[in-house]
Predict the 3D structure of the following.
Amino acid sequence: MTGNMTEALGAAMSAYTRWHTSRTFDWAAFPASRGYPEVSRAQMRDVGAGSSPKADAPSALRPATFTLSLVYQPVGKFGAADAHEVEEAFVVFEDVLTVGWEEDGLTVEQRLGPTDLIFTRPGRVRSFRNDGFEPAEFMIVVGTGQPEGVRFQAAS
């Protein structure tokens, strides 16, 4: 009986494991960015649905309470100012990422390097860009299994 239980537990664990080497970055995850090379980035959806139109990525695990994505962003590219209805965190793995917060026409920025993290509250308008010398890789964690569509900040 123990062998069958171990095998079943191992199979369950494998169903919830995603190996980085078996996945690829999706350069078409954000179709609204097509035609705007300055915001190009690729995404690897790992957990949850996210707010990209590709919410049904077959490789993504289906939790109820958060979304996790790995993002690859070339040098000089940025993510436009937007906000989510839930908490969001960024963790940088490679190179640097400059994250901006906006409020009442003001913008403040923090430059993050490997293993640095920034957390944003629901509704916080934020943007990000790669000011480094190499492509940046970072994780975005959003506090729901399927966020609403993003709310972009109008240019001032």
User: Anything to note?
Assistant: The CA atoms of residues 30 and 52 lie 6 Å apart. The chain has one domain: 21-152. The chain has a mean pLDDT of 84. The longest strand covers residues 67-73.
